[in-house]
Design a protein that fits this description.
Layout (H helix, E strand, L loop, with lengths): L3 H4 L10 E2 L22 E5 L21 E8 L2 E2 L4 E4 L2 E2 L10 E2 L4 E4 L8 E5 L8 E4 L3 E4 L7 E9 L9 E6 L6 H5 L4 H6 L5 E4 L1 H10 L3 E4 L38 E7 L11 E7 L2 E4 L15 E5 L11 E6 L5 E2 L7 E3 L8 E2 L14 E5 L5
Parallel strand pairs: 1-6
Antiparallel strand pairs: 2-3, 3-4, 3-5, 7-8, 8-11, 9-10, 9-12, 12-13, 14-19, 15-24, 16-19, 16-24, 17-18, 17-20, 21-22, 22-23
Length: 379
């Protein structure tokens, strides 16, 4: 006679709620259900209390939340006469929402909100749950050793008492600015730069100009030839020395890229200028002249060497492609205010400006201006 215990499924059946989790990369199967049964017994699952169809592959048959499954027990080749009905409940753990983070130059305090039903959280630098750090119930993590002005992405998951894991939540934050990169690039002119107001021109050295260009990864527009202290053209090379079209009075500096910041510029004064000079950087867009910098008036004597300036906290130019130009007082190469974007210059001891026309056989002096531009604000 078959023992009654073997004819009927032992009613010590314990169902562990299955997790429908993205991290597992699969929907739970019927095999995710566990039961308490006699030692050495096996469990079979059916779709009906009596008769019905056997789930031949419970390990690959996905559970359907709310569906009833029926279990029998088989021991020593004898299957129980009755089956036990089980209703499947799939639990999906809610993912935590990102909160406001607190950046600094070399660290970020990452924050996220609580997730309903969660008993803990994991945080990671990569989108790999297994590699993430268990934060327990903490909803904040301070990460140090980062690089200033750099964007970072981090990842957080929630989990619950049943072992269910939520979908991943991506956290993104850019660290704080590296500080004033222009100030850092300067050496002997830092005091003047600090004292200057926004858009002021600060006189700097050639070495500082080069340092600013490197520190900001700035792009040079305008004249791109070699910088020397003697820019008086000879009578035989006046049409070939400079980066302008020869024999024309429409020698425009290269147009400035839209939405960039003009951070520094250099130009060469006229030969044998008449006296101290003032200068100002402007842009000309369709005949409209707009100041890029304030007027520099710190020169007290005539100069014949190339001049270098940095602009304190420059303003971003508009979404246009304006012509950049240096305006200055007599004795310094200048632009015609009424001639759209024509350059002028002073020759010898002659006062007043002339329309630029570098002609072979005539000695002329060109300003050869260059402007440094950057698309990223670093001050």
């Amino acid at each position: 006679m078959i023992p009654n215990a073997l004819k009927n499924l032992i009613l010590m059946l314990v169902i562990v709620t299955a997790c429908n989790t993205v991290v597992q990369a699969q929907t739970p199967t019927i095999s995710s259900l566990t039961v308490t049964h006699e030692a050495d017994a096996t469990i079979k699952w059916y779709d009906a209390l009596t008769g019905g169809t056997l789930y031949a592959s419970p390990g690959t048959t996905n559970l359907v939340s709310g569906q009833i499954y029926y279990a029998s027990q088989t021991l020593n080749g004898v299957e129980s006469a009755s089956r036990f009905a089980v209703t499947a409940t799939l639990v999906t753990q809610t993912a935590p929402a990102a909160a406001d983070h607190t950046p600094a130059q070399t660290q970020v305090v990452w924050n996220w909100n609580s997730a309903s039903g969660a008993t803990g959280y994991k945080w990671g630098t990569t989108n790999v749950y297994a590699d993430a750090t268990n934060m327990l119930t903490a909803r904040t993590n301070t990460e140090t050793g980062l690089t200033c002005n750099t964007s970072y992405s981090r990842y957080v998951w929630a989990y619950n008492a049943s072992g269910c894991v939520s979908a991943v939540t991506a956290l993104t934050q850019t660290t704080s600015s590296c500080g004033d990169a222009v100030y850092t690039a300067l050496s002997g002119s830092r005091a003047s730069y600090t004292a200057a107001a926004a858009n002021d021109l600060v006189k700097i050295t050639a070495a500082e100009y080069a340092s600013v260009k490197t520190a900001l990864s700035a792009t040079a527009i305008g004249y791109t030839g070699a910088f020397t202290n003697d820019w008086a053209t000879s009578a035989t090379s006046g049409s070939t020395t400079f980066s302008y079209n020869a024999n024309s009075n429409e020698n425009t500096i290269q147009t400035y890229s839209a939405l960039n910041y003009p951070v520094a510029f250099t130009f060469h004064p006229g030969l044998n200028p008449q006296g101290a000079y003032t200068c100002q950087l402007k842009y000309n867009n369709g005949g409209t002249l707009v100041n890029v910098s304030s007027v520099f008036s710190g020169a007290t004597a005539a100069v014949t060497d190339r001049q270098y300036f940095v602009i304190k906290t420059p303003t971003q130019l508009p979404n246009a492609t304006p012509y950049i130009a240096v305006y200055s007082s007599g004795g310094i190469a200048t632009i015609n205010a009424t001639g759209s974007h024509y350059w002028s210059w002073v020759e010898g001891n002659q006062t007043g400006a002339k329309t630029l026309e570098s002609v072979t056989g005539g000695s002329s002096q060109l300003p050869s201006p260059q402007v440094l531009q950057t698309s990223t604000k670093q001050w």
